[in-house]
């Protein structure tokens, strides 16, 4: 036991600690502790009043027991009593106990707060500090309520001691972090900011943490701190290493304060005042210069302190991202660190360079270090440093070096640590896709990935390669050949079998000409893997086999033989058995034509962003992949025709026309045109009608009309409808109403609505958290809308509810029924909701869609307008020129016409205009208007109550200079409000 | 800084300071996980590692590991020097500090830390000033204060 010379020895405590240390086993320790607890309990309960010293000693023992990891359920009262002792050490122990063991026993908190209040007003700086430390350590809301008003006063009072100011500043910071609403700086703001000028360096050091936190939340109020911070920094940077006495640390003047000042400046854009900015740039240059000077000490503390400031300065330079000269100097400095003997510096240099790589000014400078970074990836002995190197390679990758970087990452993967393999795989997959110039390289890369690290290749990755191959016919043959070769390996990864099965099933015919890869050879190769695979893969292979029967009739007997054998047709797995039975039957009874139709090649996937990026983000946790990167991914993703959803799904085979039409099969890929003629018209396919992009102008009558109408039965008459509410229930509350009122519609909701006047599908709304896609279809006076809510985060949304309301008279004009939606939306997942709409009579407003959910703890509440406008219920009407003008004349009363003359917002492209007018839902009448530049349209709006005929004329002055191009839009209709409403809607479209 | 842990090479926790509100259960889980992670690292490895969404900065002094969790924006190197300054303070106060000093005088270790760091931020970086504050407190130890405010306190005295 060491001699305790300082402070107040508590012999009993020391003995107890020794006893504990001498315990030979956990059991002995527990026994000794229980004995002690019993002893303390009896002392506390005893009749004899304990003196302060004993109380302190026992409280301290309890604390020690708690810190050993045992539960303590008494002694709190005794600790609170110590707070009011006038012996400093007793008070101190009392506060320590409270700080470590506070619980939210409200009775106790009141007593504690009382004691704190007394100490705060004691004007004894030592006691005041103790009380402030306790508040800062506990930081509970009750304490904020009690003291948030008082502490700012203590902080800025002229007669407060420096040490108390320091504690007060950080105490306030802690309270602000837990209860920002209770800490109101208001009148104190300016005096707090001026603490930056305080003579006492310790006060500045403490106050600046508070100011930084406040500035992050209220930058405008605190912006005067910028010039003060710059001048303070400038004084420190230019001071000699001995000027600041005890605030100099291993020859570095005030390193903590310097770092904090640089950190504070990162809350703001570069100073606008030229003089301030000049001074700051000078500081940054001095810091960079100092890095080149020989060290004043060999101690690692000297170099750490100096470099801490340097890295913070570089962070500021990157934050400003406006001084190319400084950025490049920063990059060069970090380049030197890349080969430093200190592992810590290499690690930080790699980390910091990652952010430099994203600046346009320094991206090229970072790229010059590629060889060093690759070398780091190969030779660093610490996995966390290698991880940084891989991150940096990923960040510096662009079209010029993608092949080299991807090759290096691939070869690193072979020996990479298991902990980072999955992330590496995702990164390689993203880079390969993002920078692929030729797709054979892309296919090679992904197949290599599967070969090297098959276990770490997530579904997203192999789905993606299939999507890309399906969407790009120039690579299909190559892909078929390559997977065929890859499957030759005696032991190949199951993911390879999946990709191989899928691709050969689709494109095996492209390599079947070569006798070495004849249909039967291909089949035998795939089937040789069958028995080694899991059920989902076997299911996929069975689908590939039936596709083979279609592609290569000569394989039919062999494959039927396989399907027919007991291990398939009587397989204990239901999915496999069903597939075997159905495929066998299909191949035996269907004619070649039917077979060819059902088993047609997969249509291209709609374009959408790579889901791999989302996966990487999820893996790295929020914030790890910047929003920027996702944005970029989206942009780049556009270059490829890939969709993010699952191609390997069981419904994928002939999903365009096979059974189980699932609207969710298409998820969010709505932005672009749907696949062209995805299915043959004859297939009686509901799904095609439902999802084809063609507007209401598409063939209205047809063999499948019945089915369509049945599916779209009016909600009010639904007998077997899935709708929860019965007819006439228009005033019943929507399900699961949340207590909070719906938010007012977003300011941009009208703008969002305008996007959907001439189209039915697309992205209705998108923010950081949520994307809402919409698909809709209309027939007569009925409509059905599918909303797709996509959770863009990696965190689940809970209590997800949606409601639709029809404000005012809309309630009697439109009947809108919402099907319930799952209240839980998993991170990265998407849920679908169906809305049935019936137009009772003409209307002008749009229904409001309110969405509420909890993300983290926060309630999200947003209201949008549903993209339903009166024109959706148009039925196109063809008519001759003569008829048109006759009707036009009939509708000549002033209230029947609405006219608008407006400037063209877009180029006057005839084809685009035509498409928009068709999208409106009317018939576009050719050769009706004597002026061929003009457009005329006709249609009938179908409502339950009436039909409203409408005529439209759009006159562009195409010959005018761009910028002066105008339209005159005229609408006539038998009902005045309709002409006016349509005119408003349309005027925003051209 | 979100928390600081001191633990021995055998994985015994010697000091824990939490600057964010967490349940006891969560604290124990974090401690267990971090002690294991840090102890598994080899001597020459770098002092920083990513852990959940935090950065861990640690350094070993003799048989003790000092381990801090900081946020993404925080500076790793300056945190290393926070650790070092704390070690210096302990060293100066105890006179070449060893693990036993911290075990037997754990309350002092907490008091010194509170003078140096408060709410996870540096309060006073001058070694002299911190030690002055602690020594002043030690001088006060058995001095009986006759405070004008001592009367109302009596309410809470048993």
From TrEMBL, chain A:
Compositional bias ranges of the Polar residues kind: 653-663
Stretches assigned to the Clathrin adaptor alpha/beta/gamma-adaptin appendage Ig-like subdomain domain: 754-867
Disordered as annotated region, ranges: 616-666, 702-750
GO biological process: clathrin-dependent endocytosis; intracellular protein transport
An annotated Gene Ontology molecular function: clathrin adaptor activity
Pfam families, alphabetized: Adaptin_N, Alpha_adaptin_C, Alpha_adaptinC2
Compartments where located: Cell membrane; Membrane, Coated pit
Topology within the bilayer: Peripheral membrane protein
Stated family: Belongs to the adaptor complexes large subunit family.
Function in brief: Component of the adaptor protein complex 2 (AP-2). Adaptor protein complexes function in protein transport via transport vesicles in different membrane traffic pathways. Adaptor protein complexes are vesicle coat components and appear to be involved in cargo selection and vesicle formation. AP-2 is involved in clathrin-dependent endocytosis in which cargo proteins are incorporated into vesicles surrounded by clathrin (clathrin-coated vesicles, CCVs) which are destined for fusion with the early endosome.
Subunit structure: Adaptor protein complex 2 (AP-2) is a heterotetramer composed of two large adaptins (alpha-type subunit AP2A1 or AP2A2 and beta-type subunit AP2B1), a medium adaptin (mu-type subunit AP2M1) and a small adaptin (sigma-type subunit AP2S1).
Protein name in UniProt: AP-2 complex subunit alpha
UniProt organism field: Pygocentrus nattereri (Red-bellied piranha)
Automatic annotation (TrEMBL), chain B:
Principal location class: membrane
Entry-linked PROSITE patterns: CLAT_ADAPTOR_S
Gene from which this protein is expressed: AP1S2
Membrane topology according to the record: Peripheral membrane protein
Lineage top rank: taxon: Eukaryota
Physiological role: Subunit of clathrin-associated adaptor protein complex 1 that plays a role in protein sorting in the late-Golgi/trans-Golgi network (TGN) and/or endosomes. The AP complexes mediate both the recruitment of clathrin to membranes and the recognition of sorting signals within the cytosolic tails of transmembrane cargo molecules.
Protein name as catalogued: AP complex subunit sigma
Keyword Membrane: yes
Annotated Gene Ontology cellular component terms: AP-1 adaptor complex; clathrin-coated pit
């Amino acid at each position: 036991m060491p001699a305790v010379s300082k402070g107040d020895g508590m012999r009993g405590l020391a003995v107890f600690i020794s006893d504990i240390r001498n315990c030979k086993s956990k059991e002995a320790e527990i026994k000794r502790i229980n004995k002690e607890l019993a002893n303390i309990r009896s002392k506390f309960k005893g009749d004899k009043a304990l003196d302060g010293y004993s109380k302190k000693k026992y409280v301290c023992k309890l604390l020690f027991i708690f810190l050993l990891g045992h539960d303590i359920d008494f002694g709190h009262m005794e600790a609170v009593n110590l707070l009011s002792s006038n012996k400093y050490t007793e008070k101190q122990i009392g506060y320590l106990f409270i700080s470590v063991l506070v619980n939210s026993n409200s009775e106790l908190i009141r007593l504690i707060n009382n004691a704190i209040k007394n100490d705060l007003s004691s004007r004894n700086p030592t006691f005041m500090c103790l009380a402030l430390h306790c508040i800062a350590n506990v930081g509970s809301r009750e304490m904020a309520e009690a003291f948030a008003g008082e502490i700012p006063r203590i902080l800025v009072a002229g007669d407060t001691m420096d040490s108390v100011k320091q504690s007060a500043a950080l105490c306030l910071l802690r309270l602000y972090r837990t209860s920002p609403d209770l800490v109101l700086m208001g009148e104190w703001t300016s005096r707090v900011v001026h603490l930056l000028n305080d003579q006492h360096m310790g006060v500045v050091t403490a106050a600046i943490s508070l100011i930084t936190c406040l500035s992050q939340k209220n930058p405008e109020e605190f912006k005067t701190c910028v010039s003060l911070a710059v001048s303070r920094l400038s004084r420190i940077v230019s001071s000699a290493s001995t000027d600041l006495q005890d605030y100099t640390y291993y020859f570095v003047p005030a390193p903590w304060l310097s770092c904090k000042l640089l950190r504070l400046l990162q809350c703001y854009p570069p100073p606008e005042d030229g003089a301030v900015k000049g001074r700051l740039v000078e500081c940054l240059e001095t810091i960079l210069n100092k890095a080149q000077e020989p060290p004043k000490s060999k101690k690692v503390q000297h170099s750490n302190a100096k470099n801490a400031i340097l890295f913070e300065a570089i962070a500021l330079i990157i934050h400003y991202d406006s001084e190319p000269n400084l950025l490049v100097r920063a990059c060069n400095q970090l380049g030197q660190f890349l080969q430093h003997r200190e592992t810590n510096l290499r690690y930080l240099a790699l980390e910091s360079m990652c952010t430099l790589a994203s600046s346009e000014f320094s991206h090229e400078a970072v790229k010059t270090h590629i060889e060093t970074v690759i070398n780091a990836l190969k030779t660093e002995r610490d996995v966390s440093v290698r991880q940084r190197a891989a991150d940096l390679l990923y960040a510096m990758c662009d079209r010029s070096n993608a092949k080299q970087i991807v090759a290096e990452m691939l070869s690193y993967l072979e020996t990479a640590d298991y902990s980072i393999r999955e992330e590496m795989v995702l990164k390689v997959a993203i880079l390969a896709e993002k920078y692929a110039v030729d797709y054979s390289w892309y296919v090679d890369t992904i197949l290599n990935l599967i070969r090297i690290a098959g276990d770490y290749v997530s579904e997203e990755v192999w789905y993606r390669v299939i999507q890309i191959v399906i969407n790009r016919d120039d690579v299909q043959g190559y892909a078929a050949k390559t997977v065929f070769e890859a499957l030759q390996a005696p032991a190949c990864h199951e993911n390879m079998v999946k990709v191989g099965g899928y691709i050969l099933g689709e494109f095996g015919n492209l390599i079947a000409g070569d006798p070495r890869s004849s249909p039967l050879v291909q089949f035998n190769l795939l089937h040789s893997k069958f028995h080694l695979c899991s059920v989902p893969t076997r299911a996929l292979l069975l689908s590939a086999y039936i596709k083979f029967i279609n592609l290569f009739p000569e394989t039919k007997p062999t494959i039927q033989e396989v399907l027919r054998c007991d291990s398939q047709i009587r397989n204990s797995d239901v999915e496999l058995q069903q597939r075997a039975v159905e495929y066998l039957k299909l191949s035996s009874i269907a004619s070649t034509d039917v077979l060819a139709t059902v088993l047609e090649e997969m249509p291209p996937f709609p374009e959408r962003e790579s889901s791999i990026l989302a996966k990487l983000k999820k893996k790295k946790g929020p914030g790890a992949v910047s929003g920027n990167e996702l944005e970029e991914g989206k942009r780049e993703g556009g270059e490829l025709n890939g969709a993010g959803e699952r191609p390997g799904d069981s419904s994928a085979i002939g999903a365009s026309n096979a059974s189980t039409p699932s609207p969710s099969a298409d998820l969010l890929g709505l932005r672009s045109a749907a696949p062209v003629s995805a299915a043959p018209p004859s297939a009686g396919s509901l799904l095609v009608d439902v999802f084809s992009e063609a507007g209401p102008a598409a063939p209205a009558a047809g063999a499948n009309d019945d089915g369509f109408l049945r599916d779209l039965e009016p909600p009010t008459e639904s007998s077997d409808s899935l709708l929860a509410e019965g007819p006439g229930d228009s005033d019943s509350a929507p399900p699961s109403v949340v207590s909070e009122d719906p938010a007012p519609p977003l300011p941009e909701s009208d703008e969002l609505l305008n996007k959907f006047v001439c189209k039915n599908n697309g992205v209705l709304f998108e923010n950081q958290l949520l994307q809402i896609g919409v698909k809709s279809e209309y027939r007569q006076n009925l409509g059905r809308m599918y909303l797709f809510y996509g959770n863009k985060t990696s965190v689940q949304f809970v209590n997800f509810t949606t409601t639709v309301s029809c404000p005012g008279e809309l309630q009697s004009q439109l009947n809108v029924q919402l099907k319930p939606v799952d209240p839980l939306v998993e991170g990265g997942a998407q849920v679908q909701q169906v809305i049935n709409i019936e137009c009772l009579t003409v209307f002008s407003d749009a229904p409001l869609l309110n969405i509420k959910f909890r993300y983290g703890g926060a309630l999200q509440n947003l209201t949008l307008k549903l993209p339903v406008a009166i024109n959706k219920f148009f039925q196109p009407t063809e008519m001759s020129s003569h008829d048109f003008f006759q009707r036009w004349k009939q509708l000549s009363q002033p209230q029947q016409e609405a006219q608008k003359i407006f400037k063209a917002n877009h180029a006057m492209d005839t084809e685009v205009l035509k498409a928009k007018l068709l999208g409106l839902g009317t018939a576009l009448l050719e050769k009706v208007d004597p002026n061929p530049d003009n457009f005329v349209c006709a249609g009938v709006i179908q409502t339950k109550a009436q039909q409203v005929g409408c005529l439209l004329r759009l006159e562009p002055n195409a010959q005018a200079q761009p910028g002066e191009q105008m339209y005159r839009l005229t609408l006539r209709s038998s009902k005045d409000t309709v002409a006016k409403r349509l005119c408003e809607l349309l005027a925003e479209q051209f | 800084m979100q928390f600081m842990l001191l633990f021995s090479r055998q994985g015994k926790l010697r000091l824990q300071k939490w600057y964010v509100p967490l349940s006891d259960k969560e604290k124990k889980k974090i401690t267990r996980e971090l002690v294991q992670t840090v102890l598994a690292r080899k001597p020459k490895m770098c002092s920083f590692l990513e852990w959940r969404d935090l950065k861990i900065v640690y350094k070993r002094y003799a048989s003790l590991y000092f381990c801090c969790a900081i946020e993404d924006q925080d500076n790793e190197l300056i945190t290393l020097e926070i650790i070092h300054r704390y070690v210096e303070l302990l060293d100066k106060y105890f006179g070449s500090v060893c693990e036993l000093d911290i075990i037997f005088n754990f309350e002092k270790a907490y008091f010194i830390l509170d003078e140096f760091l408060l709410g996870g931020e540096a309060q006073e970086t001058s070694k002299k000033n911190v030690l002055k504050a602690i020594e002043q407190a030690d001088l006060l130890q058995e001095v009986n204060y006759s405070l004008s405010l001592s009367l109302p306190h009596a309410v809470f005295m048993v």
